[in-house]
């Protein structure tokens, strides 16, 4: 059988991002897949820009990546008890592309953050936006990696076995939706 297409979306642009590390764990837990990574270096949503020039090619590319993916995993960092501007901006842009890329798309949202709640508020806000975009949000125990600075080892691997177990369960459920 052909490997499913898995798209990863990090709400952090940082190279050393803990959410990127978490996504790498998620990809491994998902199993064999054709993996692609979203690039959220997008201009800020501006209705005047959209009217004058249309939706930027980078946004159209992202919408195509989402449409063509069998499944999407989003890592949502938390800034000031909310979704990062980077991720919200991307979701706002994608919502402007005709064709509703997220509609019925199986999606799992996970989070890592420095604080004690592991990005729970940001994750909740992300799920709320994705509901508006009609994504198929898979239920399951939330993956919330608190104290992210200490949660990964030097190789960038998630240390806590329980967290790895929860992540594996979410990714197995995501895989079961598409194969
Ligand atoms: C502007 C800003 C606001 C932040 N607010 C929160 C917060 O509300 N809750 C939290 O747990 N961590 C907060 N943090 C810390 C982030 O969790 C931490 O920087 C984390 O590493 C970001 O994710 P990343 O490693 O994927 O980039 C904040 C960081 C920044 C830069």
From TrEMBL:
Gene Ontology CC, one term: cytosol
Gene3D superfamilies, A to Z? 3.40.50.360
Q: Which domain of life is it from?
A: Bacteria
Annotated NADPH-dependent FMN reductase-like domain ranges read 4-148
**Pfam families per the record?**
FMN_red
Q: Which GO terms describe its molecular function?
A: FMN binding; oxidoreductase activity
Q: What InterPro entries does UniProt report for this protein, alphabetically?
A: Flavoprotein-like_sf, FMN_Rdtase-like_dom, NAD(P)H-dep_reductase
In its UniProt entry, what is this protein called? Answer: Chromate reductase
- Which species? Roseovarius azorensis
What lineage is on file?
Bacteria, Pseudomonadati, Pseudomonadota, Alphaproteobacteria, Rhodobacterales
């Amino acid at each position: 059988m052909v490997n499913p297409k898995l798209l990863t979306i990090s709400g952090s642009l940082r190279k050393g991002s803990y959410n990127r590390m978490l996504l790498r764990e998620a990809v491994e837990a998902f199993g064999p897949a054709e993996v692609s990574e979203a690039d959220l270096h997008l201009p800020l949503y501006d209705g005047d820009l959209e009217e004058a020039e249309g939706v930027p090619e980078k946004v159209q590319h992202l919408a195509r990546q989402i449409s063509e993916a069998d499944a999407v995993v989003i890592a949502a960092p938390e800034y000031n008890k909310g979704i990062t501007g980077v991720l919200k901006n991307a979701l706002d842009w994608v919502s402007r592309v005709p064709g509703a890329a997220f509609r019925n798309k199986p999606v799992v949202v996970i989070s890592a953050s420095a604080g004690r709640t592991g990005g729970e508020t940001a994750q909740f806000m992300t799920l709320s936006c994705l509901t508006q975009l009609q994504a198929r949000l898979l239920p399951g125990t939330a993956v919330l990696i608190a104290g992210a600075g200490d949660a990964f080892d030097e190789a960038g691997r998630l240390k806590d076995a329980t967290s790895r177990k929860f992540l594996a369960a979410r990714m197995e459920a995501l895989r079961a939706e598409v194969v």
